[in-house]
């Protein structure tokens, strides 16, 4: 798992290197034609490989089996289910809830383009929301926010099915607040309630009612979970950006789910002008601004013009030839934000590019970055470059999605993938039993985690395909969750 750090001061390629144009013309190069629909199906299938709990009969990634069946027992509650966030065996709710919100947003914006994969997307969302509901309702006055001691877990290299590390239960409460993780949980439940509104009304109502209560908790007991649970969540998923962004994000999603003016008033009280050039599981401001701008662009509601302006200021910080751009690009034209797990930022920002492009098209809208005119096509073209790069249109001709294309990462930093399955090796593999001969082996992983998108290449477009190099070779749910929407967006054109 990669933690966000301050912007690297490393010298990267110039914003204008090789005359990067807004259109990113493919002149002189073979035109990319990835199979977006195949990639979409694989990106959703990946979540089955991350499942914790009792594996259902219709499981398609068959080398995984039951794990974490006693999660919550130390607190006398049932906290089974949910997802392991990355290549480890810990359940961290802040990134898991963000994963859920992004999957839900993707289903809401692009469900019509998903075809048969919409059902699989709903199943992936529900696997998370079933768990998040338990976390929010198991004990009055508490929100459970994680299971598994990360320090103990990271000393081991064992399959989730063999897990014998302590499954410590972590929670926030009035005395130990966690507005960030609570705000994100509220956002996830509210967004998911919209996904299920027409297909399972009872479940949708439960999700929304719980989202409202969790948001009240976040507001009434303000504080960061990084302060309450520092040793358990830092440096892994520290809330580096604070909790205001999660309160804005949660309020934005509850406003969309309820249309209740109290959430608009809450947004006004939280203020604006939150300058950012990043969007991730830690920093939600840009996502909230794009989400809220929808009312300005689609409904011409002047009350939301501020968020449209914030969204466009963000886009101007991303576009490569904008005078206010603060985003670096590699020679291969990949957005490069931070050295650890860079693709998490690429996929999340790309989601905002396609979604704002969609809103602009619907509203017949353009905007300016200085003297640069930005059209819906400007954002869509940049998003396509990023998606295509991930799928193999890059200097190495390497797909960074496992199982997609002919050349993809074979040695990903992932316990279940790198160790033999229970079917082929029924004997338990102890805590340190997986390091030799598996972790340090140069052999490809025996189990292919289809659809997993890894941390990605370095600033020079290089990728060593080394499982010991977690910052580049580790997949994560929040990388994939943000990519599902753009893949569906482009699938509709394929």
Automatic annotation (TrEMBL):
GO terms for biological process: cellulose catabolic process. Its EC number is 3.2.1.4. This is Endoglucanase. The active site is at 413, 465, 474. The gene is LOC103498660. Belongs to the glycosyl hydrolase 9 (cellulase E) family. One of its GO terms (molecular function) is cellulase activity. Keywords: Carbohydrate metabolism, Cellulose degradation, Glycosidase, Hydrolase, Polysaccharide degradation, Signal. The keyword Signal applies. Residues 36-486 form the Glycoside hydrolase family domain. It comes from Cucumis melo. It catalyses: Endohydrolysis of (1->4)-beta-D-glucosidic linkages in cellulose, lichenin and cereal beta-D-glucans. InterPro entries: 6-hairpin_glycosidase_sf, 6hp_glycosidase-like_sf, Glyco_hydro_9, Glyco_hydro_9_Asp/Glu_AS, Glyco_hydro_9_His_AS. Residues 1-32 form the signal peptide.
């Amino acid at each position: 798992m990669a933690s966000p750090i301050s912007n690297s001061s490393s010298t990267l390629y110039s914003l204008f290197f090789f005359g990067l144009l807004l259109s990113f013309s493919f002149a002189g190069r073979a035109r990319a034609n990835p199979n977006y629909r195949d990639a979409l199906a694989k990106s959703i299938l990946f979540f089955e490989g991350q499942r914790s709990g009792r594996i259902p009969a219709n499981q398609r990634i068959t080398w995984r089996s039951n794990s974490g069946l006693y999660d919550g027992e130390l607190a006398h509650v049932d906290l089974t289910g949910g997802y392991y966030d990355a290549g480890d065996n810990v359940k961290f709710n802040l990134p898991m809830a963000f994963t859920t919100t992004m999957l839900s947003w993707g289903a809401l914006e692009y469900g019509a383009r998903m075809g048969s994969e919409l059902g699989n997307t709903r199943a992936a969302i529900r696997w998370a929301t079933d768990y998040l509901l338990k976390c929010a309702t198991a004990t009055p006055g508490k929100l459970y926010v994680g299971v598994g001691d990360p320090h103990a877990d990271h000393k081991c290299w064992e399959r989730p099915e063999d897990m014998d590390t302590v499954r410590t239960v972590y929670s926030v409460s009035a005395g130990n607040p966690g507005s960030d993780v609570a705000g994100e949980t509220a956002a996830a439940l509210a967004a998911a309630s919209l996904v299920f509104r027409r297909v399972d009304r009872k479940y949708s109502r439960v999700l929304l009612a719980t989202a409202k209560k969790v948001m009240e908790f976040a507001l009434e007991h303000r504080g960061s979970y990084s302060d309450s649970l520092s040793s358990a969540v830092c440096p892994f998923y520290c809330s580096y950006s604070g909790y205001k962004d999660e309160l804005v994000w949660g309020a934005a999603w509850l406003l969309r789910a309820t249309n209740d003016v109290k959430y608009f008033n809450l947004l006004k009280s939280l203020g604006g002008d939150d300058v950012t050039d990043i969007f991730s599981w830690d920093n939600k401001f840009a996502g909230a601004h794009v989400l809220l701008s929808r009312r300005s662009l689609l409904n011409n509601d002047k009350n939301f013009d501020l968020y449209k302006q914030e969204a466009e200021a963000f886009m101007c910080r991303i576009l490569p030839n904008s005078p206010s751009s603060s985003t670096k690009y590699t020679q291969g034209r990949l957005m490069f934000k931070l050295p650890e797990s860079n693709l998490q930022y690429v996929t999340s920002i790309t989601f905002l590019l396609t979604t704002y492009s969609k809103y602009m098209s619907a509203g017949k809208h353009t905007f300016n970055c200085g003297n640069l005119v930005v059209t819906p096509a400007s954002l869509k073209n940049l998003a396509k470059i990023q998606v295509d790069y991930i799928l193999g249109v890059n200097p190495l001709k390497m797909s960074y999605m496992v199982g997609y294309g002919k050349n993809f990462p074979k040695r990903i930093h992932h316990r279940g993938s790198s160790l033999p399955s229970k079917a082929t090796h029924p004997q338990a593999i102890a805590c340190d039993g997986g390091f030799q001969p598996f972790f340090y082996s140069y052999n490809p992983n025996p189990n292919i985690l289809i659809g997993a998108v890894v941390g990605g290449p370095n600033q020079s477009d290089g990728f060593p395909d080394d499982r010991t190099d977690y910052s580049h070779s580790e997949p994560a749910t929040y990388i994939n969750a943000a990519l599902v929407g753009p893949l569906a967006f482009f699938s509709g054109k394929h």
